[in-house]
Specification:
heterodimer; A: 333 residues; 2 domains; 8-stranded mixed β-sheet; 4-stranded antiparallel β-sheet; B: alpha/beta; Elongation Factor Tu (Ef-tu), domain 3; Rossmann fold; binds iron/sulfur cluster; binds FE2/S2 (inorganic) cluster
């Protein structure tokens, strides 16, 4: 099921969607000329939309903020004071297929039959996903073609090349609800297949268990990786977090918070007695890659935890390219 | 015990969270009363809390001290009416926990994790190997066995401590030794000069015992080097990897398989463990 939207009417369509909920879209930030997901202030902001590149920061902060209070407490009487969860209705617009699949991965992790993360769930249930299809990959580091992406969205907009229309694919009942907001545009119903995205870069194999002891890991990462954690901050599927108590200076009131954490930090595996389970950089780097490509599919089924967005490669200050690394191992170099 | 939260009686909902208070947030600890506090040996402290929740030996609770954080503490009992927690004060949270008094309240989340699958061991003989504070979770196993003694064969316990002052649950163990519920073998690795009892490591006594692997399962809990050494000496006795169950320790935060801290390869210590069969985790590299 889908609709055809004349390109000239895109802004009108978005204005209609914007009505009554917070609208988040990729815009170019003036101060540093970087494309990021930001909440639009109003209709005039629509002129700032930018689809030339994939936003540098992912939209994961709208699902789990970098600092999120879990509850507040009072130390004196050891009581929890405020544990309300507030979530706003949000429309995330302009997510590429890689970031949409990252949401799927987060959903599997945080909303599972055994445990449900209440904070994540509240945020997630109030989010509508409106995708933007990549006719051409936005970056030379994209390799999503090799990552078995699926269609996971409420709506997906595709700028039909060489035509005057945008095809809107409805991917879920929530998407249908969203389309009702644009009822008065009287869009023509239409159906077509959303094709697979072809990317310049490819990951040659997912079967990398056999390379665990390959000397290349050590050679490339031990001297090059700075453990700066930039890759994990940028990655749309890296959702590891830390929980800690933050007490105010009155030594009475405080907040239990969670914050993003990274397996690239040494502290990540520290246990009592100052023992670290992954003390060297190579072990930590490998853990990230193996978790994404090997361990995750073993736990949750066949999709890897990496969606091929290429951010970790593009953003790494020392240009460590794990895809290249694995490809070289596969080629026997 | 069915769950007041969603009405289901499945095991996964059998958490303090659900049982005591109805629906509580995942990261919200629940208040329980401390019934008893007791010093165990020179180093450990036992806190008995009033919590009626189904649990397996080997599972653990996340204990909160507001303002200090959370720490995983394993269960050292098996009872319908209370939970015993043995605290070794080595971290900021645990040091704070032992300052509580009977009558105070403790904040808990749990029980979490996969404990020792006791049904699986029915009609077998058992070997329990514990090192230091690793004896505490095994005390939960022993409580269970003492209540279901007829289902198990002979049971040998090999407990190793650094020095005699570290040993825990001496009274209970002595009672069990007297009535023949368990057979005990102790080993003290760094005893004072005047000490006359058995010295050295448990591995020595395991090898000396000459027990065969026929219809026997082993449960090990202790520091990692000790567990590895014990497994080695069990191998010399002919034990296979799938007869050995170990309990792992990792940095934990969420205890629900989300925060990623406790991963050993593709397994979450908090959710798939802390108890693993050795052959499941043997090959794990990091
Ligand atoms: S961004 Fe690069 S240097 Fe920094 S932690 Fe990641 S791999 Fe290492
Ligand atoms: S691992 Fe790298 S390429 Fe894969 S999803 Fe994360 S940032 Fe993107
Ligand atoms: S403690 Fe968070 S995943 Fe295990």
């Amino acid at each position: 099921m889908g609709y055809l939207l004349p390109k000239s009417k895109l802004n009108t369509f978005l204005e209609l969607l914007m009505h009554g909920s917070s609208f988040i879209a990729p815009v170019r930030r003036k101060k540093d000329d970087v494309v990021v997901f930001e909440e639009l202030e109003g209709k005039t902001d629509l002129t700032r939309l930018d689809f030339t590149t994939n936003p540098q920061f992912t939209a994961k902060k709208f699902f789990m903020p970098a600092y999120e209070p879990l509850f507040t407490y009072n130390m004196k009487n050891q009581k929890l004071t405020d544990k309300k969860i507030t979530a706003r209705q949000r429309i995330l617009f302009g997510l590429r297929l890689c970031d949409l699949n990252a949401v799927k991965i987060q959903d599997q992790l945080f909303i599972n039959p055994q445990f449900t993360d209440d904070h994540y769930q509240a945020a997630r249930e109030n989010i509508f996903l409106v995708g933007w299809y990549c006719n051409t990959p936005p970056s030379k580091f994209c390799f999503c073609e090799s990552m078995n992406l699926t269609h996971y969205y409420d709506l997906m907009l595709r700028d039909l090349p060489g035509k005057k229309d945008i095809y809107i694919d409805v991917g879920s009942p929530k998407g249908e609800i969203l389309m009702r907001k644009a009822m008065k545009l009287k869009l023509k119903e239409h159906h077509e297949h959303v094709p697979k995205i072809r990317t310049p870069k490819k990951l040659k194999t997912h079967d990398i268990r056999k390379y665990f002891d390959h000397p290349k890991w050590q050679k490339t990462t031990e001297s090059k990786c700075l453990s700066c954690q930039r890759c994990t901050t940028m990655c749309p599927t890296c959702m590891c977090f830390d929980i800690y108590d933050k007490t105010q200076t009155d030594l009475e009131h405080g907040t239990r918070e969670r914050t993003w954490d990274s397996c690239h930090s040494k502290q990540f595996t520290r246990v009592a007695g100052d023992h670290y389970f992954r003390p060297d950089r190579t072990a930590r780097f490998k853990h990230r890659i193996y978790h994404k490509i090997v361990y995750y599919p073993e736990i949750f089924g066949q999709v890897p935890m990496c969606t091929g967005c290429g951010r970790c490669i593009e953003q790494c200050p020392t240009q460590i390219d794990f895809v290249e690394l694995i490809n070289e191992m596969e080629d026997g170099k | 015990m069915s769950c007041k939260g969603c009405g289901s009686s499945c095991k996964c909902h059998n958490h303090l969270q659900h049982v005591e208070k109805g629906k509580v947030l995942l990261y919200e600890p629940v208040k329980v009363k401390i019934l008893k506090k007791q010093k165990l040996g020179d180093r450990h402290t036992l806190l008995r809390v009033e919590a009626r929740v189904d649990h397996d030996p080997g599972q653990f609770f996340q204990v909160t001290v507001l303002g200090f954080g959370e720490a995983p503490i394993s269960i050292a009992s098996w009872s319908k009416d209370y939970i015993d927690l043995v605290v070794n004060p080595v971290g900021t949270v645990t040091k704070e926990v032992i300052r509580k008094k009977p009558g105070d309240y403790l904040l808990l989340r749990g029980p979490f994790g996969y404990g020792y699958p006791m049904h699986y061991f029915y009609n077998n003989s058992l070997i329990l190997v514990g090192g230091g504070c690793g004896v505490a979770p095994l005390k939960g196993v022993m409580d269970y066995i003492a209540k279901h003694r007829q289902h198990f064969g002979e049971i040998h316990c090999f407990f190793g401590y650094r020095n005699p002052g570290d040993s825990i649950f001496d009274k209970e163990m002595a009672k069990w030794e007297k009535d023949g519920t368990f057979t005990f073998h102790y080993a003290f690795s760094h005893p004072p000069k005047s000490f006359k009892g058995p010295t050295g490591f448990v591995t020595k006594y395991i090898e000396e015992s000459g027990l065969s692997n026929h219809r026997r399962a082993v449960m090990i809990c202790g520091p990692t080097p000790m567990m590895l050494a014990a497994i080695k000496s069990l191998e010399t006795l002919g034990f296979n990897d799938d007869q050995v169950w170990i309990s792992h320790e990792r940095h934990m935060k969420c205890a629900t398989g989300m925060c990623g801290h406790c991963m050993i390869e593709g397994k979450y210590t908090c959710k798939d463990g802390p108890v693993f069969r050795w052959d499941w985790i043997k090959e794990a590299k990091g």
